[in-house]
Amino acid sequence: MNEFMTKLQNIVAEPRLLLDEPMAKHTTFRIGGPADYLVLPASSEEVAAVQAAAREYAVPVIALGNGSNLLVRDGGIRGLVIKIGETMGYMRKSDTTVIAGAGASLGDISRFAACSGLKGMEFAVGIPGSIGGAVFMNAGAYEGEIGNIVSAVTAVCPGNDLKRFTHAEIEFGYRHSAFQSNGCIVCEVEISLSEGDSGSIENRMGDYTSRRNAKQPIEMPSAGSTFKRPPGHFAGTLIEQAGLKGFRVGGAQVSEKHAGFIVNAGGATAKDVMALITEVQRKVYDKFRIKLQPEVRVIGED
Ligand SMILES: Cc1cc2nc3c(=O)[nH]c(=O)nc-3n(C[C@H](O)[C@H](O)[C@H](O)COP(=O)(O)OP(=O)(O)OC[C@H]3O[C@@H](n4cnc5c(N)ncnc54)[C@H](O)[C@@H]3O)c2cc1C
Fold it and tell me: Same domain for 94 and 179?
C-alpha cells in the first residue's frame, strides 16, 4: 500500500474510501472508467484534510456531486475524486434561510423548504444534482436559477482555507460561477427564501415535475441537456430541425423524446458520446451556422 493511501485511511475510514472505483456507478450517464481513489468526506474538515494530503503527494483532485452533469472518459480518472454526497447532505432552517451541506440533493432541499413554508426553491425540485454541483453550474429551470437564491457559500480553497463567499464573489452567470476557475470545493450553501403557503408551493413543485416527466427522457441514463442554450435559440429545436432525433453512435443516442438530451441507450461508452456530440455540432453548424457549446462537463482520460 502506498503512503498516500495510508494517509487517506487516517482521515476517512474504509467504507468511505474506495480504490479503482468505476465512475459509471457515480454518474447519471452510467458511463466512466475507474478513479484511482474516491473518498466520501463527512465534513468540511475532512475535505480540507484530504485536499492537503493530495497536495502533499501531488495527486490531482476533482470534486464530484451527484455526477448528473458529467461525462467521465473511458480510461477513468488518474488521481482523487472527492465526492460531496449524502455524507454531507444535512439541512437546517434559520428564519427564511436554509443552510445545506453541499451534498444535499436539490430535490430534498426543495421538499424541506416546502414543508417549512418557504418559497423560491420550487424550480429546482426535478434537477437531479447536489446543491454544491448546482452552485458550481448555476443550475436553473423554469425561469429560476440557483444564483438567484444563494446568498453565501463556504468552501475549502487551495491552500486549505475555509472561505466564505458572498453572493457577489460567486460571480453567477448563465451556467457559470467562480467555482469553475477558483479550484475551491463547495462545502456549505446558504439559500435565501421567503415565506409562502406550503400547499401552493407543493402545487407548483407538482406542476414542474409533471412538465419535466412529459418532456424529458428521465427514464434513460443521461447528463441532462447536452448543450448550452445558444443565444436566441433552443439547442433541442436546432438538433431536431437538423434531422437528428434518434440519431445514434454506438450506444449513445439523441433522445427520441427530447433532442436536447443525449442518452445512454445501452452500453454507451464515453467515446460514443463524444463522437455523437461532434457529429451533432457538425450537422447543426452546417445547417444553421450555429456552434453548439457542450453544457455537460467532460473529465478523465481516454
Ligand atoms: C435528467 C436530468 C435533468 C437535468 N435537468 C437540469 C435542469 O433542468 N437544469 C440544469 O441546470 N441542469 C440540469 N441537469 C444537469 C445537472 O443535474 C445539474 O447541472 C446539476 O446542478 C449538477 O449537479 P451535480 O451534483 O450532479 O454535479 P456533478 O455532475 O457531480 O458535477 C458538475 C460539476 O460541478 C463540480 N462540482 C460538483 N460538486 C462540487 C462541489 N461541492 N464543489 C466544487 N465543485 C463541484 C464538478 O467538478 C463538475 O465539474 C439535469 C441532468 C439530468 C440527468
Answer: yes
Do 294 and 223 sit in the same domain of this protein?
Answer: yes
260 lines ligand 1 (CB under 6 A): no
Q: Does the C-beta of 178 come closer than 6 Å to ligand 1?
A: no
pLDDT tens, position by position, 67-115: 999 999 999 999 999 999 999 999 999 999 999 999 999 999 999 999 9
- Using one digit for the tens of pLDDT, what is the confidence trace for 202-245? 999 999 999 999 999 999 999 999 999 999 999 999 999 999 99
Protein residue whose Cα sits closest to atom 49 of ligand 1: 297
Atom of ligand 1 nearest to the CA of 222: 53
The model's pTM: 0.97
Is residue 51 lining ligand 1, measured as CB closer than 6 Å?
no
Strands (E) across the chain are located at 17-22, 34-39, 61-64, 70-72, 77-83, 91-94, 97-101, 118-119, 140-141, 144-145, 150-156, 162-166, 185-192, 194-195, 222-225, 248-249, 252-254, 261-264, 297-299
| Nearest atom within ligand 1 for CA of residue 68 | 26
One domain, residues 130 and 75: no
For residue 112, give the CATH number of its domain: 3.30.465.10
Q: Predicted confidence band at 14 (pLDDT cuts at 50, 70, 90)?
A: confident
Minimum CA distance residue for ligand 1 atom 12: 139
